[in-house]
Amino acid sequence: MGEQADGSTGAEVSGTFSAAGDEKVPKMSGGPRARVLGEVAAEVLSARREHPVRVALDGCSAAGKTTLANELAGVLRWHTAREVIRAELDYFKRAPELRTTYPIESSESYYYEVYDYDAIRERLLKPLGPGGDRRYVNGLRDTSARTQLAVPPRTAAPDAILIADGTFLQRPELNNYWDLRIYVHVTFETVLRRGAVRDAAWMDSREAAAHRYRTRYIPGERLYINQIHPADRAQLVLNNEDPATLTITRRPAPRR
């Protein structure tokens, strides 16, 4: 998800942030998207561990990750009594004043400095992993990263499922802490088109939003793709160019 000029994504959190992500999503009608989400849910449910299963939905800004993650969580809740935890990793950004290595509006700052990878690992992923105490939080700051949130720790069930979405989720700081990696693919042309429409309201115009995508988000995401090759590492790749006809590519031997 893109940020506003002050680091915000435009999303608002009122009051205390809900760490549960317990909301149900409406049951979807049939069609290719519903069938693919059913396949993905089956893959998630087959990934049994002796600790909560940690699932990453990785991809570029405006790829549709959060919508997919919410839908997947809803499908899982429909099919299993296991606890399903949602986390949007935009709630783990570093405060803007801590991003000092690169110019704040640069693609390098976006890629290297926006997210608090240590907090994601220590407060969310490691507690849910092998030997963890299962006490986690799924957010620390609002999406502007300027306001700390009162997120009480929760204790996950031993067989819980974490569905987390965000950008750069397979960076070295996080990659070994996922049990299933899903990469949501769209072209950069689609990122630009969707992002400019989605973010026009808080960037004043589509032109301003498109400029920010061209100069900051897309170059930062190119850095990630060129360094990490996230689609090659992922066990599943979803093509979300046309959300109505979502398709899936399986990667039986992911590169690590």
UniProtKB/TrEMBL annotation:
<feature type="region of interest" description="Disordered">
    <location>
        <begin position="1"/>
        <end position="31"/>
    </location>
</feature>
<keyword id="KW-0418">Kinase</keyword>
<protein>
    <submittedName>
        <fullName>Uridine kinase</fullName>
    </submittedName>
</protein>
<keyword id="KW-0808">Transferase</keyword>
<dbReference type="GO" id="GO:0016301">
    <property type="term" value="F:kinase activity"/>
</dbReference>
<dbReference type="InterPro" id="IPR027417">
    <property type="entry name" value="P-loop_NTPase"/>
</dbReference>
